[in-house]
Design brief:
The complex is a heterodimer of chains A (282) and B (260).
Chain A lengths: L1 E2 L9 H12 L15 E5 L7 E7 L2 E12 L10 E8 L14 H16 L9 E3 L3 E13 L4 H14 L2 E8 L4 E12 L6 E9 L2 E4 L3 H6 L2 E8 L4 E7 L6 H32 L1
Parallel strand pairs in A: 5-7
Antiparallel strand pairs in A: 2-3, 3-4, 4-7, 6-7, 8-9, 10-11, 10-12, 12-13
Helix pairs in contact in A: 3-5
Chain B lengths: L16 E6 L2 E6 L11 E5 L7 E7 L2 E12 L12 E8 L14 H15 L10 E11 L4 H15 L9 E8 L2 E4 L3 H6 L2 E8 L4 E11 L1 H38 L1
Parallel strand pairs in B: 6-7
Antiparallel strand pairs in B: 1-2, 3-4, 4-5, 5-7, 8-9, 8-10, 10-11
Helix pairs in contact in B: 1-2
Classes of the chains: A alpha+beta (282), B alpha+beta (260).
Chain lengths: 282, 260
Protein backbone atom coordinates (compact mmCIF):
# COMPACT_ATOMS: atom_id res chain seq x y z
CA UNK A 1 0.00 0.00 0.00
CA UNK A 2 1.20 3.42 -0.86
CA UNK A 3 0.39 6.21 1.56
CA UNK A 4 0.70 10.01 1.39
CA UNK A 5 4.04 10.69 3.08
CA UNK A 6 4.29 13.22 5.85
CA UNK A 7 6.62 16.02 4.78
CA UNK A 8 10.16 14.73 5.41
CA UNK A 9 11.91 17.96 6.18
CA UNK A 10 10.08 21.13 6.95
CA UNK A 11 11.47 23.99 4.95
CA UNK A 12 10.99 27.32 6.75
CA UNK A 13 8.53 29.58 4.95
CA UNK A 14 11.06 32.36 4.64
CA UNK A 15 13.45 30.00 2.85
CA UNK A 16 10.64 28.75 0.63
CA UNK A 17 9.74 32.30 -0.38
CA UNK A 18 13.37 33.15 -1.02
CA UNK A 19 13.86 30.13 -3.27
CA UNK A 20 10.62 30.80 -5.12
CA UNK A 21 11.20 34.49 -5.68
CA UNK A 22 14.75 33.83 -6.86
CA UNK A 23 13.42 31.24 -9.32
CA UNK A 24 11.11 33.86 -10.78
CA UNK A 25 14.21 35.86 -11.64
CA UNK A 26 15.87 32.81 -13.14
CA UNK A 27 18.37 32.14 -10.36
CA UNK A 28 18.58 29.34 -7.86
CA UNK A 29 19.32 29.57 -4.16
CA UNK A 30 22.68 27.84 -4.62
CA UNK A 31 23.68 30.27 -7.38
CA UNK A 32 23.02 27.95 -10.31
CA UNK A 33 21.14 28.79 -13.47
CA UNK A 34 17.80 27.04 -14.01
CA UNK A 35 19.36 24.66 -16.54
CA UNK A 36 22.64 24.10 -14.75
CA UNK A 37 23.77 20.74 -13.40
CA UNK A 38 25.89 20.58 -10.26
CA UNK A 39 29.55 19.55 -10.26
CA UNK A 40 29.92 15.90 -11.28
CA UNK A 41 32.68 13.61 -10.09
CA UNK A 42 32.95 10.01 -11.24
CA UNK A 43 35.46 7.66 -9.64
CA UNK A 44 35.50 4.31 -11.48
CA UNK A 45 36.71 1.05 -9.92
CA UNK A 46 36.11 2.32 -6.41
CA UNK A 47 35.57 -1.16 -4.94
CA UNK A 48 38.27 -3.60 -6.00
CA UNK A 49 36.30 -6.60 -4.74
CA UNK A 50 33.46 -5.87 -7.13
CA UNK A 51 33.55 -6.90 -10.80
CA UNK A 52 32.76 -3.30 -11.63
CA UNK A 53 32.03 -0.22 -9.55
CA UNK A 54 31.96 3.52 -9.38
CA UNK A 55 31.39 6.32 -6.92
CA UNK A 56 29.51 9.32 -8.23
CA UNK A 57 29.16 12.70 -6.65
CA UNK A 58 26.56 15.10 -7.97
CA UNK A 59 26.96 18.21 -5.85
CA UNK A 60 26.86 16.61 -2.42
CA UNK A 61 24.67 13.71 -3.47
CA UNK A 62 26.81 10.60 -3.33
CA UNK A 63 25.98 7.22 -4.85
CA UNK A 64 28.11 4.09 -4.95
CA UNK A 65 27.31 1.30 -7.38
CA UNK A 66 28.86 -2.15 -7.31
CA UNK A 67 28.43 -4.87 -9.91
CA UNK A 68 28.68 -8.51 -8.85
CA UNK A 69 28.16 -11.58 -10.99
CA UNK A 70 27.35 -15.23 -10.63
CA UNK A 71 26.25 -18.11 -12.83
CA UNK A 72 22.67 -19.36 -12.73
CA UNK A 73 20.27 -21.31 -14.91
CA UNK A 74 18.38 -18.88 -17.23
CA UNK A 75 14.68 -18.08 -16.95
CA UNK A 76 12.60 -20.64 -18.83
CA UNK A 77 11.11 -17.99 -21.16
CA UNK A 78 14.55 -16.58 -22.08
CA UNK A 79 16.79 -19.67 -22.22
CA UNK A 80 19.43 -17.88 -24.28
CA UNK A 81 19.81 -14.71 -22.26
CA UNK A 82 21.72 -13.70 -19.18
CA UNK A 83 20.00 -12.13 -16.21
CA UNK A 84 20.18 -8.52 -15.06
CA UNK A 85 19.10 -7.53 -11.56
CA UNK A 86 19.00 -3.93 -10.35
CA UNK A 87 18.59 -3.27 -6.66
CA UNK A 88 18.68 0.05 -4.80
CA UNK A 89 19.38 0.56 -1.15
CA UNK A 90 18.70 3.92 0.54
CA UNK A 91 21.05 3.35 3.45
CA UNK A 92 20.03 5.17 6.63
CA UNK A 93 23.37 6.95 6.95
CA UNK A 94 22.57 8.92 3.79
CA UNK A 95 19.73 11.01 5.18
CA UNK A 96 17.68 11.54 8.32
CA UNK A 97 14.64 10.63 6.22
CA UNK A 98 15.91 7.13 5.39
CA UNK A 99 14.99 4.27 7.70
CA UNK A 100 16.69 0.90 8.01
CA UNK A 101 14.77 -2.06 6.64
CA UNK A 102 13.77 -3.46 3.28
CA UNK A 103 13.64 -0.96 0.36
CA UNK A 104 10.60 1.33 0.54
CA UNK A 105 8.51 2.39 -2.46
CA UNK A 106 10.96 5.17 -3.34
CA UNK A 107 13.96 2.85 -3.48
CA UNK A 108 11.94 0.27 -5.41
CA UNK A 109 10.76 2.86 -7.91
CA UNK A 110 14.30 4.12 -8.47
CA UNK A 111 15.65 0.61 -9.04
CA UNK A 112 12.82 -0.20 -11.43
CA UNK A 113 13.14 3.00 -13.46
CA UNK A 114 16.89 2.40 -13.86
CA UNK A 115 16.32 -1.29 -14.63
CA UNK A 116 13.83 -0.42 -17.40
CA UNK A 117 16.07 2.25 -18.89
CA UNK A 118 18.85 -0.32 -19.19
CA UNK A 119 16.66 -3.19 -20.32
CA UNK A 120 14.42 -1.56 -22.92
CA UNK A 121 17.25 -0.29 -25.07
CA UNK A 122 19.42 -3.36 -24.38
CA UNK A 123 22.35 -1.49 -22.85
CA UNK A 124 23.85 -4.88 -22.04
CA UNK A 125 23.44 -7.51 -24.75
CA UNK A 126 22.07 -10.24 -22.49
CA UNK A 127 22.32 -12.83 -25.27
CA UNK A 128 26.11 -12.57 -25.04
CA UNK A 129 26.06 -13.62 -21.39
CA UNK A 130 25.26 -17.25 -22.11
CA UNK A 131 27.79 -19.91 -21.13
CA UNK A 132 25.62 -22.84 -22.10
CA UNK A 133 22.12 -22.28 -23.53
CA UNK A 134 19.24 -23.35 -21.26
CA UNK A 135 21.72 -24.28 -18.53
CA UNK A 136 24.27 -21.71 -17.48
CA UNK A 137 24.13 -17.94 -17.93
CA UNK A 138 25.74 -14.98 -16.22
CA UNK A 139 23.65 -13.02 -13.76
CA UNK A 140 24.65 -9.39 -13.35
CA UNK A 141 23.72 -7.71 -10.10
CA UNK A 142 23.73 -3.92 -10.08
CA UNK A 143 23.55 -2.73 -6.48
CA UNK A 144 22.88 0.97 -6.01
CA UNK A 145 24.00 2.30 -2.66
CA UNK A 146 22.95 5.86 -1.83
CA UNK A 147 25.49 7.31 0.59
CA UNK A 148 24.42 10.94 0.83
CA UNK A 149 21.07 12.37 -0.21
CA UNK A 150 21.12 15.91 -1.51
CA UNK A 151 18.49 15.43 -4.18
CA UNK A 152 18.40 13.97 -7.67
CA UNK A 153 19.21 10.40 -6.71
CA UNK A 154 18.05 9.23 -10.13
CA UNK A 155 20.69 10.99 -12.23
CA UNK A 156 23.47 10.17 -9.78
CA UNK A 157 22.41 6.52 -9.58
CA UNK A 158 22.13 6.17 -13.34
CA UNK A 159 25.57 7.74 -13.86
CA UNK A 160 27.09 5.47 -11.23
CA UNK A 161 25.36 2.41 -12.71
CA UNK A 162 26.56 3.23 -16.21
CA UNK A 163 30.11 3.97 -15.06
CA UNK A 164 30.21 0.75 -13.05
CA UNK A 165 28.94 -1.36 -15.95
CA UNK A 166 31.48 0.26 -18.26
CA UNK A 167 34.36 -0.96 -16.13
CA UNK A 168 32.87 -4.35 -15.29
CA UNK A 169 35.02 -7.34 -16.16
CA UNK A 170 33.56 -10.82 -15.96
CA UNK A 171 35.71 -13.34 -14.11
CA UNK A 172 36.97 -16.50 -15.73
CA UNK A 173 34.53 -19.41 -15.53
CA UNK A 174 35.67 -22.98 -16.00
CA UNK A 175 33.34 -25.88 -16.43
CA UNK A 176 33.82 -28.92 -14.28
CA UNK A 177 32.81 -31.72 -16.66
CA UNK A 178 32.10 -34.24 -13.89
CA UNK A 179 29.59 -32.15 -12.01
CA UNK A 180 28.41 -29.97 -14.92
CA UNK A 181 28.97 -26.90 -12.78
CA UNK A 182 30.83 -23.75 -13.75
CA UNK A 183 33.46 -22.65 -11.29
CA UNK A 184 34.16 -18.94 -11.15
CA UNK A 185 37.76 -17.91 -10.66
CA UNK A 186 37.11 -14.59 -8.99
CA UNK A 187 40.72 -13.46 -9.07
CA UNK A 188 40.97 -13.66 -12.83
CA UNK A 189 38.79 -11.04 -14.41
CA UNK A 190 39.12 -11.36 -18.13
CA UNK A 191 36.17 -10.27 -20.24
CA UNK A 192 34.98 -6.66 -20.23
CA UNK A 193 31.19 -6.45 -20.31
CA UNK A 194 29.75 -5.47 -23.70
CA UNK A 195 27.87 -2.18 -23.70
CA UNK A 196 25.59 -1.34 -26.64
CA UNK A 197 24.55 2.17 -25.69
CA UNK A 198 25.24 4.62 -22.95
CA UNK A 199 22.14 5.78 -21.09
CA UNK A 200 21.73 8.66 -18.65
CA UNK A 201 18.69 10.06 -16.91
CA UNK A 202 17.94 13.75 -16.63
CA UNK A 203 15.67 14.79 -13.77
CA UNK A 204 13.52 17.84 -14.25
CA UNK A 205 11.69 19.37 -11.30
CA UNK A 206 8.75 21.73 -11.31
CA UNK A 207 8.55 24.38 -8.60
CA UNK A 208 5.42 26.47 -9.08
CA UNK A 209 5.58 27.07 -12.83
CA UNK A 210 9.36 27.00 -13.08
CA UNK A 211 11.17 24.06 -14.66
CA UNK A 212 14.66 23.30 -13.35
CA UNK A 213 17.19 20.58 -13.97
CA UNK A 214 19.09 18.54 -11.34
CA UNK A 215 17.13 19.60 -8.22
CA UNK A 216 18.92 19.48 -4.88
CA UNK A 217 17.23 18.17 -1.74
CA UNK A 218 15.55 21.45 -0.81
CA UNK A 219 14.32 22.00 -4.34
CA UNK A 220 12.91 18.48 -4.44
CA UNK A 221 11.01 19.18 -1.24
CA UNK A 222 9.46 22.27 -2.81
CA UNK A 223 8.83 20.71 -6.22
CA UNK A 224 5.28 19.54 -6.87
CA UNK A 225 6.42 16.98 -9.42
CA UNK A 226 9.49 15.63 -11.17
CA UNK A 227 10.01 14.09 -14.56
CA UNK A 228 12.84 11.62 -14.98
CA UNK A 229 13.77 11.27 -18.64
CA UNK A 230 16.18 8.53 -19.71
CA UNK A 231 18.16 9.40 -22.85
CA UNK A 232 20.72 7.30 -24.70
CA UNK A 233 23.78 8.34 -26.71
CA UNK A 234 21.70 8.18 -29.91
CA UNK A 235 19.48 10.99 -28.56
CA UNK A 236 16.52 8.66 -28.15
CA UNK A 237 14.15 8.76 -25.21
CA UNK A 238 14.50 5.34 -23.61
CA UNK A 239 12.38 5.76 -20.50
CA UNK A 240 10.36 8.22 -18.53
CA UNK A 241 8.69 8.47 -15.15
CA UNK A 242 6.64 11.23 -13.59
CA UNK A 243 7.24 11.32 -9.86
CA UNK A 244 5.51 13.32 -7.15
CA UNK A 245 2.05 14.44 -6.19
CA UNK A 246 1.75 17.26 -8.71
CA UNK A 247 1.17 17.33 -12.44
CA UNK A 248 2.68 18.55 -15.70
CA UNK A 249 0.94 20.46 -18.48
CA UNK A 250 1.65 19.66 -22.14
CA UNK A 251 3.91 22.68 -22.49
CA UNK A 252 5.81 21.75 -19.36
CA UNK A 253 6.35 18.20 -20.58
CA UNK A 254 7.54 19.46 -23.95
CA UNK A 255 9.89 21.95 -22.31
CA UNK A 256 11.17 19.31 -19.90
CA UNK A 257 11.97 16.84 -22.65
CA UNK A 258 13.80 19.46 -24.69
CA UNK A 259 15.83 20.37 -21.63
CA UNK A 260 16.49 16.71 -20.83
CA UNK A 261 17.70 15.95 -24.35
CA UNK A 262 20.00 18.95 -24.24
CA UNK A 263 21.36 18.27 -20.77
CA UNK A 264 21.89 14.54 -21.34
CA UNK A 265 25.04 15.55 -23.23
CA UNK A 266 26.58 16.96 -20.05
CA UNK A 267 26.21 13.61 -18.28
CA UNK A 268 27.30 11.60 -21.33
CA UNK A 269 30.42 13.75 -21.64
CA UNK A 270 31.30 13.18 -18.01
CA UNK A 271 30.94 9.43 -18.54
CA UNK A 272 33.22 9.57 -21.58
CA UNK A 273 35.81 11.63 -19.71
CA UNK A 274 35.89 9.32 -16.74
CA UNK A 275 36.55 6.36 -19.03
CA UNK A 276 39.26 8.23 -20.89
CA UNK A 277 40.98 9.24 -17.64
CA UNK A 278 40.81 5.66 -16.45
CA UNK A 279 42.39 4.26 -19.61
CA UNK A 280 45.28 6.75 -19.60
CA UNK A 281 45.95 5.80 -15.98
CA UNK A 282 46.51 2.19 -16.99
CA UNK B 1 13.32 -18.32 -8.58
CA UNK B 2 10.16 -16.57 -9.57
CA UNK B 3 10.27 -13.60 -11.84
CA UNK B 4 8.08 -10.57 -11.71
CA UNK B 5 5.45 -10.07 -14.33
CA UNK B 6 7.78 -7.79 -16.18
CA UNK B 7 7.80 -8.05 -19.88
CA UNK B 8 10.71 -9.77 -21.48
CA UNK B 9 10.79 -9.24 -25.17
CA UNK B 10 11.80 -12.20 -27.22
CA UNK B 11 12.77 -11.72 -30.80
CA UNK B 12 9.51 -13.35 -31.79
CA UNK B 13 8.47 -13.31 -35.42
CA UNK B 14 4.90 -12.66 -34.40
CA UNK B 15 3.30 -10.14 -36.71
CA UNK B 16 1.08 -7.68 -34.91
CA UNK B 17 0.46 -5.21 -37.72
CA UNK B 18 -1.08 -6.01 -41.08
CA UNK B 19 -0.93 -3.33 -43.80
CA UNK B 20 -4.00 -3.03 -46.01
CA UNK B 21 -4.86 -0.89 -49.00
CA UNK B 22 -7.77 1.48 -48.51
CA UNK B 23 -8.69 4.30 -50.90
CA UNK B 24 -5.19 4.14 -52.33
CA UNK B 25 -3.61 4.49 -48.89
CA UNK B 26 -1.66 1.95 -46.88
CA UNK B 27 -3.31 1.56 -43.51
CA UNK B 28 -2.04 -0.44 -40.53
CA UNK B 29 -4.48 -2.91 -38.99
CA UNK B 30 -3.68 -4.39 -35.58
CA UNK B 31 -3.74 -8.07 -34.66
CA UNK B 32 -7.21 -7.75 -33.17
CA UNK B 33 -8.57 -5.81 -36.14
CA UNK B 34 -8.35 -2.34 -34.59
CA UNK B 35 -7.08 0.82 -36.30
CA UNK B 36 -4.06 2.56 -34.78
CA UNK B 37 -6.21 5.12 -32.97
CA UNK B 38 -9.00 2.81 -31.87
CA UNK B 39 -9.76 1.93 -28.27
CA UNK B 40 -10.85 -1.55 -27.26
CA UNK B 41 -14.54 -1.90 -26.31
CA UNK B 42 -14.74 -0.10 -22.98
CA UNK B 43 -17.44 -0.50 -20.39
CA UNK B 44 -17.86 1.08 -16.96
CA UNK B 45 -20.18 0.73 -14.03
CA UNK B 46 -20.28 2.60 -10.72
CA UNK B 47 -21.68 1.58 -7.35
CA UNK B 48 -20.96 -2.10 -7.89
CA UNK B 49 -20.03 -2.95 -4.29
CA UNK B 50 -22.44 -2.72 -1.40
CA UNK B 51 -19.97 -2.12 1.44
CA UNK B 52 -17.67 0.44 -0.12
CA UNK B 53 -18.41 4.16 0.08
CA UNK B 54 -17.76 4.29 -3.63
CA UNK B 55 -16.92 1.66 -6.21
CA UNK B 56 -16.49 1.13 -9.93
CA UNK B 57 -15.90 -1.63 -12.44
CA UNK B 58 -13.99 -0.88 -15.63
CA UNK B 59 -13.31 -3.05 -18.66
CA UNK B 60 -10.82 -2.22 -21.42
CA UNK B 61 -11.34 -5.18 -23.75
CA UNK B 62 -10.42 -8.22 -21.67
CA UNK B 63 -8.73 -6.13 -18.96
CA UNK B 64 -11.05 -5.98 -15.96
CA UNK B 65 -10.47 -3.85 -12.88
CA UNK B 66 -12.66 -3.25 -9.86
CA UNK B 67 -12.00 -0.30 -7.54
CA UNK B 68 -13.39 0.59 -4.13
CA UNK B 69 -13.06 3.66 -1.95
CA UNK B 70 -13.50 3.76 1.81
CA UNK B 71 -13.51 7.14 3.44
CA UNK B 72 -12.89 9.86 4.32
CA UNK B 73 -12.68 8.10 7.67
CA UNK B 74 -10.80 8.37 10.92
CA UNK B 75 -7.07 7.91 10.27
CA UNK B 76 -5.75 4.73 11.81
CA UNK B 77 -3.04 4.37 13.10
CA UNK B 78 -3.35 7.91 14.46
CA UNK B 79 0.21 8.98 13.60
CA UNK B 80 -0.39 8.75 9.83
CA UNK B 81 -2.93 11.60 9.96
CA UNK B 82 -1.91 14.99 8.58
CA UNK B 83 -3.23 18.18 10.21
CA UNK B 84 -4.06 20.07 7.03
CA UNK B 85 -5.29 17.44 4.61
CA UNK B 86 -6.56 13.91 4.10
CA UNK B 87 -4.08 11.08 3.79
CA UNK B 88 -4.54 8.86 0.74
CA UNK B 89 -3.75 5.19 0.90
CA UNK B 90 -3.66 3.35 -2.39
CA UNK B 91 -3.33 -0.29 -3.33
CA UNK B 92 -3.04 -1.67 -6.84
CA UNK B 93 -3.17 -5.44 -6.74
CA UNK B 94 -3.53 -8.25 -9.24
CA UNK B 95 -5.63 -11.31 -8.49
CA UNK B 96 -3.62 -14.57 -8.64
CA UNK B 97 -5.79 -15.82 -11.53
CA UNK B 98 -5.63 -12.58 -13.54
CA UNK B 99 -2.54 -13.57 -15.52
CA UNK B 100 -1.43 -16.42 -17.78
CA UNK B 101 0.84 -17.88 -15.10
CA UNK B 102 -0.52 -17.69 -11.57
CA UNK B 103 0.67 -14.56 -9.83
CA UNK B 104 1.56 -14.90 -6.19
CA UNK B 105 -0.91 -12.85 -4.13
CA UNK B 106 1.95 -11.21 -2.21
CA UNK B 107 2.63 -7.67 -3.49
CA UNK B 108 5.41 -7.65 -6.10
CA UNK B 109 7.87 -4.81 -6.69
CA UNK B 110 5.81 -3.90 -9.72
CA UNK B 111 2.59 -3.59 -7.69
CA UNK B 112 4.33 -1.49 -5.05
CA UNK B 113 5.59 0.90 -7.73
CA UNK B 114 2.21 1.11 -9.46
CA UNK B 115 0.39 1.76 -6.17
CA UNK B 116 2.70 4.74 -5.75
CA UNK B 117 2.33 6.19 -9.24
CA UNK B 118 -1.46 5.79 -9.10
CA UNK B 119 -1.62 7.49 -5.70
CA UNK B 120 0.51 10.32 -7.04
CA UNK B 121 -1.80 10.64 -10.04
CA UNK B 122 -4.82 11.14 -7.77
CA UNK B 123 -3.20 13.33 -5.08
CA UNK B 124 -3.44 16.60 -6.98
CA UNK B 125 -7.02 15.89 -8.15
CA UNK B 126 -8.71 14.99 -4.85
CA UNK B 127 -9.40 18.17 -2.86
CA UNK B 128 -7.60 16.78 0.18
CA UNK B 129 -7.67 20.09 2.08
CA UNK B 130 -11.39 19.58 2.65
CA UNK B 131 -10.84 16.51 4.81
CA UNK B 132 -8.07 17.25 7.34
CA UNK B 133 -6.92 14.48 9.73
CA UNK B 134 -8.81 11.82 7.76
CA UNK B 135 -7.87 8.81 5.66
CA UNK B 136 -9.13 7.85 2.20
CA UNK B 137 -8.48 4.25 1.19
CA UNK B 138 -8.44 3.37 -2.50
CA UNK B 139 -8.27 -0.31 -3.44
CA UNK B 140 -7.90 -1.55 -6.99
CA UNK B 141 -8.05 -5.22 -7.91
CA UNK B 142 -7.09 -6.37 -11.38
CA UNK B 143 -9.43 -9.32 -11.98
CA UNK B 144 -8.15 -10.08 -15.46
CA UNK B 145 -5.11 -8.60 -17.09
CA UNK B 146 -4.72 -7.99 -20.82
CA UNK B 147 -2.50 -4.90 -20.92
CA UNK B 148 -3.25 -1.38 -19.74
CA UNK B 149 -4.15 -2.50 -16.23
CA UNK B 150 -2.69 0.51 -14.43
CA UNK B 151 -4.53 2.97 -16.66
CA UNK B 152 -7.81 1.04 -16.31
CA UNK B 153 -7.17 1.06 -12.55
CA UNK B 154 -6.75 4.86 -12.48
CA UNK B 155 -9.95 5.29 -14.50
CA UNK B 156 -11.80 2.98 -12.09
CA UNK B 157 -10.33 4.62 -8.98
CA UNK B 158 -11.39 8.06 -10.13
CA UNK B 159 -14.95 6.81 -10.78
CA UNK B 160 -15.07 5.15 -7.36
CA UNK B 161 -13.93 8.41 -5.72
CA UNK B 162 -16.68 10.31 -7.52
CA UNK B 163 -19.16 7.60 -6.54
CA UNK B 164 -18.07 8.04 -2.91
CA UNK B 165 -18.92 11.72 -3.19
CA UNK B 166 -15.36 12.84 -2.51
CA UNK B 167 -14.64 16.35 -3.78
CA UNK B 168 -12.38 16.36 -6.82
CA UNK B 169 -11.09 19.00 -9.19
CA UNK B 170 -11.73 16.75 -12.18
CA UNK B 171 -11.97 13.08 -13.09
CA UNK B 172 -8.86 11.18 -14.07
CA UNK B 173 -8.80 8.92 -17.10
CA UNK B 174 -5.92 6.84 -18.36
CA UNK B 175 -4.82 4.90 -21.40
CA UNK B 176 -1.60 3.30 -22.62
CA UNK B 177 -0.09 4.18 -25.97
CA UNK B 178 2.43 1.87 -27.57
CA UNK B 179 4.74 1.52 -30.51
CA UNK B 180 4.32 -1.74 -32.37
CA UNK B 181 6.36 -2.58 -35.44
CA UNK B 182 7.06 1.11 -35.93
CA UNK B 183 3.41 2.16 -35.62
CA UNK B 184 2.10 4.22 -32.70
CA UNK B 185 -1.05 2.57 -31.39
CA UNK B 186 -3.70 3.55 -28.85
CA UNK B 187 -4.74 1.35 -25.91
CA UNK B 188 -2.18 -1.46 -26.15
CA UNK B 189 -3.18 -4.96 -25.09
CA UNK B 190 -0.84 -7.49 -23.52
CA UNK B 191 0.39 -8.93 -26.81
CA UNK B 192 1.30 -5.49 -28.16
CA UNK B 193 2.91 -4.55 -24.86
CA UNK B 194 5.02 -7.73 -24.80
CA UNK B 195 6.33 -7.61 -28.33
CA UNK B 196 6.12 -3.89 -29.05
CA UNK B 197 8.99 -1.41 -28.94
CA UNK B 198 7.41 0.95 -26.42
CA UNK B 199 4.60 1.20 -23.91
CA UNK B 200 3.61 4.57 -22.50
CA UNK B 201 0.87 4.69 -19.85
CA UNK B 202 -0.66 8.16 -19.50
CA UNK B 203 -3.37 9.53 -17.21
CA UNK B 204 -4.81 13.02 -17.40
CA UNK B 205 -7.32 15.31 -15.77
CA UNK B 206 -8.79 16.31 -19.14
CA UNK B 207 -10.72 19.46 -18.20
CA UNK B 208 -7.70 20.88 -16.39
CA UNK B 209 -5.26 19.82 -19.13
CA UNK B 210 -3.04 18.16 -16.54
CA UNK B 211 -0.89 15.10 -17.08
CA UNK B 212 -0.95 13.29 -13.74
CA UNK B 213 0.63 9.96 -14.69
CA UNK B 214 3.33 9.51 -17.29
CA UNK B 215 5.64 6.57 -17.75
CA UNK B 216 7.57 5.30 -20.71
CA UNK B 217 8.95 1.81 -21.05
CA UNK B 218 10.71 1.52 -24.34
CA UNK B 219 12.27 3.67 -26.98
CA UNK B 220 10.77 6.70 -28.72
CA UNK B 221 12.17 9.66 -30.57
CA UNK B 222 11.13 13.14 -29.45
CA UNK B 223 8.76 13.44 -32.40
CA UNK B 224 7.23 10.02 -31.71
CA UNK B 225 6.74 11.00 -28.08
CA UNK B 226 4.78 14.09 -29.12
CA UNK B 227 2.60 12.01 -31.41
CA UNK B 228 2.11 9.36 -28.73
CA UNK B 229 1.02 11.97 -26.20
CA UNK B 230 -1.50 13.39 -28.67
CA UNK B 231 -2.83 9.91 -29.35
CA UNK B 232 -3.17 9.32 -25.60
CA UNK B 233 -5.00 12.62 -25.23
CA UNK B 234 -7.49 11.60 -27.90
CA UNK B 235 -8.19 8.26 -26.19
CA UNK B 236 -8.40 9.84 -22.75
CA UNK B 237 -10.96 12.38 -23.91
CA UNK B 238 -13.19 9.57 -25.22
CA UNK B 239 -12.83 7.64 -21.94
CA UNK B 240 -13.51 10.81 -19.94
CA UNK B 241 -16.78 11.29 -21.82
CA UNK B 242 -17.82 7.74 -20.92
CA UNK B 243 -16.91 8.34 -17.27
CA UNK B 244 -19.15 11.38 -17.10
CA UNK B 245 -22.01 9.55 -18.80
CA UNK B 246 -21.83 6.57 -16.47
CA UNK B 247 -21.80 8.79 -13.37
CA UNK B 248 -24.65 10.88 -14.71
CA UNK B 249 -26.75 7.85 -15.62
CA UNK B 250 -26.47 6.43 -12.12
CA UNK B 251 -27.91 9.56 -10.60
CA UNK B 252 -30.59 10.12 -13.22
CA UNK B 253 -31.73 6.54 -12.62
CA UNK B 254 -31.98 7.13 -8.89
CA UNK B 255 -33.95 10.32 -9.31
CA UNK B 256 -36.33 8.52 -11.68
CA UNK B 257 -36.93 5.89 -9.00
CA UNK B 258 -37.65 8.59 -6.48
CA UNK B 259 -40.26 10.17 -8.74
CA UNK B 260 -42.01 6.84 -9.14
Amino acid sequence: MSITPSPGTIIPKIKKYTIESLLKEGIRADGRKLNEIRRIKIIPNYIERAEGSSLVELGSTMVLVGVKTDIVPPFPDTPEEGVLVVHAEFVPLASSTFEPGPPDENALELARVIDRSLREVKVIPLDKLVLEPKKHVWRIFVDIYVLNHDGNLYDASMLATMAALMNTKLPKAVKDEDTDIFIIERNERTTPLDINYKVVTVTIAKINQTIIVDPNYEEEQLASARLVVAVDDQERIVGMQKIGMGYFTYDEVEKSIKLALEKSKVYLNELENSVRRESTKE
Amino acid sequence: MLREMDKQKSSAEIKLIEWIEENGERIPIRHDGRRYDELRPISMKVGVLENADGSAFVEYGRTRVIAAVYGPKEAHPRHIALPDRAVIRCRYHMAPFSTTERKSPAPTRREIELSKVIREALESIIIVELYPRTLIDIYMEVLQSDGGTRTAAVTAASLALADAGIAMRDLVAGVAVGKVEGVLVLDVDEEEDMYGEADMPVAMAPSLHRIVLLQLNGVLSHEEFREALNLAKKGIEAIYKMQKEVLLSKYTEISKEEVE
